[in-house]
């Protein structure tokens, strides 16, 4: 696997741990969007795109996120601690959409993305800096017509 491009969009909120959103192109053929760069206690780390996990109300079957206390559909009370726990005992509230399956791949992705982030931070200090657009449809070739 060759990471052929990383695009970084810096986040302006200086008090937040979230520092940037990224997209990563693999082998000039596959793009993963909504990768996050987060400032942790021991430096920056990469969080892969994820979705909130949900379950269904026992009364009406309505879909609710796992922290909801009341059903979005019927308003009924939902039991607490419905989320499964991870190996550290924390509630699992999000599921990765795309992620590396081994440590070597994760380290390679993280190193490439953090390097691109640091380069973008340096560029942002230059006069006339213009942040890149992340969701430009023109970067997609051969989009099928509907």
Structure characterization notes:
The chain has 146 residues and is α+β, with helices and mostly antiparallel strands. The protein folds into 2 domains: 1-49 and 97-140, Stage V sporulation protein G (Arylsulfatase, C-terminal domain, 2-Layer Sandwich); 52-94, no CATH class. 15% of the residues lie in helices and 31% in strands. It is built from 1 helix and 8 strands, in the order E-E-E-E-E-E-E-E-H. A 4-stranded antiparallel sheet has the order 1-2-3-4, covered by helices on one side. It has a two-stranded antiparallel ribbon with strand order 5-8. Strand 6 (54-56) and strand 7 (63-65) form a beta hairpin. It is elongated.
The first-to-last residue Cα distance is 31 Å
| Sheet having the most strands | 4 strands, antiparallel
Topology pattern, helix = H, strand = E: EEEEEEEEH
Strand content: 25-35%
Which structural class best describes the helix and strand composition?
A: alpha+beta
């Amino acid at each position: 696997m060759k990471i052929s491009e990383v695009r970084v969009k810096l986040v302006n909120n200086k008090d937040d741990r979230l520092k940037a959103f990224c997209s990563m192109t693999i082998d000039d053929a596959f793009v993963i969007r909504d990768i996050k760069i987060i400032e942790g206690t021991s430096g920056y780390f990469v969080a892969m795109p994820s979705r909130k996990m949900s379950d269904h109300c026992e009364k009406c079957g309505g879909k609710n996120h796992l922290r909801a206390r009341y059903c979005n559909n019927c308003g009924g009370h939902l039991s607490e601690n419905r989320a499964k726990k991870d190996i550290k005992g924390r509630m699992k509230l999000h599921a990765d959409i795309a992620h590396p399956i081994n440590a070597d791949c994760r380290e390679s992705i993280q190193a490439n993305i953090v390097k691109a982030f640091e380069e973008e931070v340096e560029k942002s200090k230059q006069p006339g800096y213009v942040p890149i657009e992340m969701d430009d449809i023109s970067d997609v070739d051969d989009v099928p017509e509907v």
